[in-house]
Amino acid sequence: MAAERPVVFVIDDDPSMRHAVEDLVASVGLEPRVFATPQEFLQAKRADAPGCLVLDVRLPGASGLAFQQELARAGIHFPVIFITGHGDIPMSVRAIKAGAVEFLSKPFRDQELLDAIHAGIERDRVQRQAAAAIAELQQRFATLTEREREIMALVLAGHANKRIAAKLGVAEGTVKVHRGQIMRKMLAQSVQELVRMGDMLGKPKS
Fold it and tell me: Across the chain, what does the average pLDDT equal?
């Protein structure tokens, strides 16, 4: 599908570098989107597709490293590949620690950048799949009643029906009915699968 075509965003104030990366990205069938400033990038509409961000470390105004942090605060989580003509080791360590895929010093080989771009897109694709799976689980969890959520937390904590019934002051048969509803609504085939779902949702275990 066209919407799924990976997108490579490029932010560099050097027009020749922007166009060189744009041509390189297009040559391998990816969709390039180029910007001279971080502000242009933030104002542009971004397609809902896997992608990554090729970012110059030295930008007008704030540095690329500062912009990387700004993106994280804004909830924009594209994997970042830094390119720079003025890089140093402490700067590259900071970038990688903050989650950058790669830190390339100019001049770099085209293949080095392409390898980093493909790694970034794959990382984003995996992140998107995980986020979609969690969103679907959250939708299922939202269908549970308050009592079902209460019982699910106790099930996740490893309590047997009898203990749950005593803890909540209800009949054991009532707990069994609720557990059946929980399994059906969450589409869980086993308690082990329900526990994995709870871990993905980050649900506390009573």
Answer: 90
Kindly provide the b/e burial profile for residues 129-157, where b requires at least 16 CB atoms within 10 angstroms of the residue's own CB.
eeeeeeeebeeebeebeeebebbbbbbbe
Q: 191 or 93: which carries more pLDDT confidence? A: 191
- Looking from the CA of 137 toward its CB, the CA atoms found within 13 Å total 18
Judge whether 52 lies within some domain: yes
Residue 1 pLDDT greater than 60, yes or no: no
Q: At what angle do helices 161-168 and 172-186 cross, to 10 degrees?
A: 110
99 lies in the same domain as 191: no
Are residues 147 and 119 part of one domain? no
Residue 138 counted as domain residue: no
- pLDDT tens for residues 27-53? 999 999 999 999 999 999 888 899 999
